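Supplementary Note 2. Why include the ligand at all?

Several targets in our set were suspected to adopt different conformations when bound, so apo predictions alone were not considered sufficient. For every target with a known small-molecule partner we therefore ran a joint prediction. The input for pyridoxal-5'-phosphate is given below.
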Amino acid sequence: MKLYSTNNPDNIVSLKEAVINAFPIDKGLYMPQQIPIFSKEELLDMWSYSFPELSQSVAKKLIGNLIPQAELEKIIKRAINFPAPVVTFNDQLSTLELFHGPTMAFKDFGARFMAELMSYFLRGETAKTTILVATSGDTGGAVASGFHNTEGIDVVILYPSGKVSPLQEKQLTTWGSNIKAVEVKGVFDDCQRLVKQAFLDNELNDNYSFSSANSINIARLIPQSFYYFEAYKQLRDKFDDIVFSVPSGNFGNLTAGLIAKKMGLPISKFLAATNMNNTVPLYLSTGNYQPKPSLATISNAMDVGSPSNFSRIQSLYSSTWNMLKKDIKGSFYTDDQTVSGLKELKDLYNYIADPHGAIGYLASKEYLKKTDCHCVFLETAHPAKFQEVVEPVLEDKINIPTKLLSFMEKEKHAYLIENSFEDFKSLLLDIHSHS
Ligand SMILES: *Cc1c(COP(=O)(O)O)cnc(C)c1O
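The joint prediction is reproduced in token form.
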């Protein structure tokens, strides 16, 4: 498997390089040079596989023999160690629950696989690698969980003080061991700036071997294609025409679905469902791509005005709007509509969704008015993660799973710093001198 940069097809790297140094110098994103296709016979065999076995087939097809079979099997076993069940409501509608991982959001899939792959590629290196990651909430928790107790890798997570929910904060600050949390008196953009500056600082680079666990890492995309196969497996006997509705922000999830389709998974259509950060749906209807500043909504993990994976989608379709439009249908919803989606799911199906899943539901419903198919909306987080939104809407208490409760009971440990690079740098040097 070789990868190229979306900004320069001649910039070609190995998977190891793409995983360890996620950013090409030309500021593009890495994409596989070739996406291999399963034959009909191969696919037929795969439908009897367990989720980990299915994941392994997909990974092997994509990655090839780069990683020995037994090693790949270990990586998958550890990363994909929780299910992705489909819940069917009626002949037209299902949901794919992607929140059964340790931090109860679909980002666990990407983060866990990336952690396993990095630790495989870095095995045998004498220097310890330190991963710097800035988070506005959920990503940091999934990354922390993925890398917790991974040998040879330390993780430093920066998060904006007072800007993450109490549960999110606990999911960032209670790990101990190789995971360190830095609470920055600033906003998310400040955290990102501090990380970027650290990568460029000579003195820090003399002491540390840095890497990034950014959301654009190709290692996070690969495992997200696995669960489209898994969902199809669960539904193929019952329904003919299966369509996925993907609540989207940075469009990693949707890109992974398109990769699964390219590999031969027979999906006729993807619905790109967003909140009012509707850059991509507008592009799909007008052909005009205009990134804009992000708006705050109640589905805040999708508050992205300039989705980073858009260039990957473009490259999959050779930037041809007409072809892209055939496979992806866009739609977007306000907070009021999201609230009514949450209520409707509860009233009609007795199902409690989270605000992001509710947007996937709304897009499914709209599409089903005109088309006869089976729509599967992705439920990207457990509703308890968005308790403060969901409970007042449904006028009901949500059961908080023990997995989440156990985080709340743990004690927070974070280094509190000013919004200043000097402070961050001296903290890192101090940590280093004590390690
Ligand atoms: C990150 C996230 C999304 C958006 O996924 P993208 O791959 O960025 O489009 C949707 N829902 C939840 C709960 C998320 O955490």
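The longest strand covers residues 153-160. The chain has a mean pLDDT of 94. Comparable summaries for the other entries are listed in the accompanying table.
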